[in-house]
Amino acid sequence: MKTMVELSHAFLQEAMHKQAIVLDGTYGNGSDTRFFLDQPVKKIYAFEIQPELKPKTIPSSLVWILDSHAHLDRYIKEPLDAAIFNFGYCPGLDPSITTQASSSIEAIQKTIQRLKPKGRLSLVLYAHENSPLEQQEIERFLKTLDPRQYGIQKITNYLKKDSPYLFLIEKRKSAKKS
């Protein structure tokens, strides 16, 4: 079976093209950014709050930002084709430095507002010390989205407690009138 990140990448890949603008909202060890670098995209925004994670070399298509993803509206002005967030902590670093419910919700809201029609967003949620509240708040927010405007799927590993789970979100072309 594929991991949640592999499923995310497969979902996001369909939104990739030569002019695509994409977002890695939680850079961490850079695996999602590397995925985007391997795709035909124009620009990649990557957010991280831990300066020691800054890549040694930064390709011209990458805009690496040392700031909270909650502030993405300060840096991203153009519409997004695809975005990914891995909520939790960076493996191999201090597990007490985690994503937080309030900034995660703010980042998701701002990302959704910037998604183009047919734009895709992937949210991978990992267990960590703040995850029960963060996961509850993210799910509460997603339930407020208009199902005529957004398609959302939740994927879980049914047999493993505390395993990561995934939301795949696609912005519809336009909201259907009722």
Automatic annotation (TrEMBL):
Protein name as catalogued: rRNA methyltransferase
TM region(s), chain numbering: none
The species this protein was found in: Dubosiella newyorkensis
InterPro entries xrefs: MnmM_MeTrfase, SAM-dependent_MTases_sf
